[in-house]
Amino acid sequence: MLLMEERRELILEELMKEGAVHVSKLAEKYSVTYETVRKDLTYLENKGLLVKSHGGATLKQNAIEHSFQVREKENAQYKKMIAQKALEIIPDNSSIIIGTGSTTLELAQLLASKSGYKIFTDSIPVASLLIKSKNQVFLFGGELRERSSSVFGGWTVSQINQIQVDLCFLGTDGFSNLDGPTSPSSSDVFVDQAIINHSEKRYILGDYTKFERKSLYKICDWSEITALITNKEAEESALNKLSASTKIITC
């Protein structure tokens, strides 16, 4: 049997990968009681690493910004579903800005097999993925930012200011009890705000766990967003509350 410290480390690793964990599944996986798992989650919550919820817990973001490589592994299957739904609403031959983020990267993966689009991005992974596609692809210039694998700064924004696209797709770190999507980086927010201002339609891509997470900086008000694309697994009460502020597309 695993030592308590080892089990808690494994629970945290799973939480960072999946974004959420469930007491019943953890108890079965580690052959311990529900009460033992709850004590583990309470310990990790007191360390500021998660937020306990009914029957489980979600990863706590707040001021902690995980690397792009870590975020890319969180809730992968749900992000793929969101990306597929986003692809369905993109008209043929349209112009698009794809912002930095792991869910937006999933959308880029789908667009890589398409053709005829003009795609702009501040994300280095998105640009790398699309470089061999049959789309016209533009990577904004600027200072490199390791945490989000993107570019930022005045140079980046000046290039965004020179274009006007049909649609943009942006990621978010969460929006729990807030009046807009958030990001842990003020420099990323500065770029996202410019993207929003130069897009006819604006979409936020965020999996269902983002309803229980938030970060330091608000990107914009929900009134500035055309729609949020998220999973139907989000709690109905949260969906109903947010639907008063913006359109929600579920998958």
Automatic annotation (TrEMBL):
Entry keywords, A to Z: DNA-binding, Repressor, Transcription, Transcription regulation
Highest taxon listed in the record's lineage: Bacteria
Residues spanning the membrane: none
GO molecular function terms noted in the UniProt entry: DNA binding; DNA-binding transcription factor activity
InterPro entries xref list: Carb_Metab_HTH_regulators, DeoR-like_C, DeoR_HTH, NagB/RpiA_transferase-like, Tscrpt_reg_HTH_DeoR_CS, WH-like_DNA-bd_sf, WH_DNA-bd_sf
Presence of the UniProt keyword Coiled coil in the record: no
Every HTH deoR-type domain range: 4-59
Keyword DNA-binding: yes
Role played: Repressor of the lactose catabolism operon. Galactose-6-phosphate is the inducer.
Identification of the protein by name: Lactose phosphotransferase system repressor
Organism, scientific name: Enterococcus raffinosus ATCC 49464
